[in-house]
Amino acid sequence: MNISIITVGKLKEKYLKQGIEEYTKRLSAYAKIEIIEVPDEKAPENLSDADMQQIKQKEGERILAKVHPDAHVIALAIEGRMLTSEQLADNIDKLATYGKSKIAFIIGGSLGLADEVMKRADESLSFSKMTFPHQLMRLVLVEQVYRAFRIVRGEPYHK
Ligand SMILES: C[S@@+](CC[C@H](N)C(=O)[O-])C[C@H]1O[C@@H](n2cnc3c(N)ncnc32)[C@H](O)[C@@H]1O
Fold first, then answer.
1. Residue 158 domain-assigned?
2. 110 C-alpha to center of ligand 1: Å?
3. Which atom of ligand 1 is nearest to the CA of 107?
4. pLDDT per residue over 34-61, tens digit each?
5. Is residue 28 part of a domain?
6. pTM (2 decimals)?
7. What separation, in Å, do the N-terminal and C-terminal C-alpha atoms of the chain show?
8. Residue 12: which domain range?
9. What three-state secondary structure class fits 145?
């Protein structure tokens, strides 16, 4: 299975980098994992709605350019579908069974994801109704994907 995580902006905080490196290393025993960063647009305070749409659109174009045409796309969105870890594992397992070998998870920038990205997504995944910073979301996602593979393999994991 090929997993790509497409994100907006560079990861700055060292503590997040370390966590992501650790889970990426663990996950690489189960899948080929690639984290793709696309440049973010500056988003100062007091932007008009039109400016915000334009920023999301520009970031969206960069994201879509990185999505493989065969990929099953899972967009992370607060208003998406909430799953248990077991359901995410089952989802990944089913995709593999049906011959989908590429999954692309997409995390938006500070303003969220453009409509065009949501249209390309095969499903959207919510981690709760709360808003997480996109850099922290990356760490949470990579841990949950690692956990999902452990569940699929029937291997022990901390509850
Ligand atoms: C700072 S948030 C964007 C907030 C923006 N106001 C919105 O409503 O999308 C950046 C990105 O992190 C991800 N994200 C943040 N919280 C999330 C959650 N609870 N569930 C799923 N994804 C989340 C989404 O991909 C989002 O585009």
1. no
2. 8
3. 25
4. 999 999 999 888 999 999 999 999 999 9
5. yes
6. 0.96
7. 24
8. 2-42+49-152
9. helix
CA distance 49 to 141: 29
Q: State mean pLDDT over 120-142.
A: 97
> Rounded CA gap, 31 and 25, in Å?
10
Q: Are 135 and 9 in contact (CB under 8 A)?
A: yes
Q: What ipTM is given for this predicted complex?
A: 0.97
Does 137 contact ligand 1 (Cβ within 6 A)?
Answer: yes
- Crossing angle of helices 85-97 and 134-152, rounded to 10°: 70
Which residue has the CA at smallest separation from atom 8 of ligand 1?
Answer: 112
Let me know if residue 8 belongs to a domain: yes
Tokens of 47: 């932007």
Number of domains present in the structure of the chain: 1
* Res 44: pLDDT: 86
Ligand 1 pocket test, candidate residues 59, 137, 138, 143, most atoms within 8 A of CB: 137
| CATH number of the domain residue 103 falls in | 3.40.1280.10
Rounded to 5, what percent of the chain is helix, strand, coil? 45, 25, 35
Tokens found for residue 122: 């095969």
> Does 157 map to a domain?
no
> CA 137 to CA 150: how far, in whole Å?
20
